[in-house]
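Here is one chain, start to finish.
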Amino acid sequence: MPDQPIGALPTGTGALALETWNLTKRFGSFTAMDRVNMRVEPGSVHALLGENGAGKSTLVKCVAGFQRAEEGAILLDGREQAIANPIVARSLGIGMVYQHFTLAPGMTVAENLLLAGGQTPAVIDWCAQRAELQAFLATTPFRLDLDARPSELAAGEKQKLELLKQLYLRPRLLILDEPTSVLTPQEADEVLGHVRTFARTGQCSVIIITHKFREVMAYADAVTVLRRGQAVHHGRVADTGPQALAQAMMGDAANASPPAASAAATADTDNPPGEVALQVEGLQALGDRGTLALHGLDLSVRRGEVLGVAGVSGNGQRELVEALVGQRPRLAGKVQVLGRDYTATRAQNRELRVRSLPEEPLRNACVGDLSVAENMALRDFDQPPLSTGGVLRFATWRSRAREWIAGYGVKTQGEGAPIRSLSGGNVQRAVLARELAGEINVLIAANPVFGLDFAAVAEIHARILGVRERGGAVLLISEDLDELLELADRIVVMSEGRIVHETPSAIAERHVLGAYMGGGHDHTPHQEAA
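Its structure:
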């Protein structure tokens, strides 16, 4: 450990070198980060891998000033720094984009960008500021309406705004926590390509937390793997590969729990998809700003089939899901399940066996203050055996919840814990247990593995394919094209609220899908033959 004075770095614009030395963080008796050493070279992109709970977020939060380590040190350009809070981190040139949004929902995009600087003048010259912001946006691969509000933006657009907030401040060390979880591969390539170029100009160093090996191999210079709070692997990306990284992340579990096989690989050619289970015709719905978000959309999903819906975030996917599951009024069109009109009432969901895995399950599929057992009972609390003669049988709720907690590996203090106290992956497992119970005719899943780790992704993908293999129809809406290519039998592309392309996944080509996702088409749907 070099003997360096502690103090603020002089103001500069060049990329920072970061080093952590024996960094240790405890929460009570639990050691979240155990003597972690890591070095990030100036002007490099450094990937940080590990399962949920491995210590990745704890490490970067210590660097960004949101948490204080009990032991060890953080060095910037060789000098030890006491980063007491995010304000100190910001003054040192450290910026961070979090996995969970930190936007002011009632303010415009322009106001959020200015607010990020923390030194907003009492009187704002909006003419000059808008010109400056437009000039800044022109240097990035993003296009956002400066007058839009985050409450009106899709998840992918919110993620772009979070990154823009940090880029606008010209950081010297930029930390990205799952920055592409809600972006398509094309958007991700734009984002990461821009960030890598920014780093290689020597203006900034970058730490990226990701679960996508493709992104690590394509954009990172070096990688550190954490497992159970310890750094177990360091190295140059050029000297490693996805299999070695997975082994480092998972340890022995990497061999015990292989990822789910692709839909194409598991397809039974003797049992092709059956009757149409979900039929959508001429569906129209308004967006949050009162304009048409779905323009007469048509699609169908058969029994024993996964239909993947691809598209750049903000092209009507969220409105489609909400219109199907009853969270958004339908302006026009018809939705049928097994030939019967479907309006997403609770009785229809039970009778027709329609289930859903919505995006952001804690917000869309749970009541945060209710217990895990109570949330697991939301679908059938008034049905036998959970209710008899109008009397709710709470002991049965709790008993079943304990079985599901064990069966789905939900990590919780118990079935009585508030569901908001669980991690994102465990909330998703709890919702999965409820939604996948019993027979299913139609499953509507929207970004079902958003922000989850390597092991959770493989498990959830396997369970989704299990629905398909038992004869259910799965509508999978995802902004991760890799996920769709792995799981779907067919893929359709949504753009500007319309289906513009359809192809069997077995012959799908990434660049063709990307062209349609990016809007390089007319509004006439194009279909590729098998």
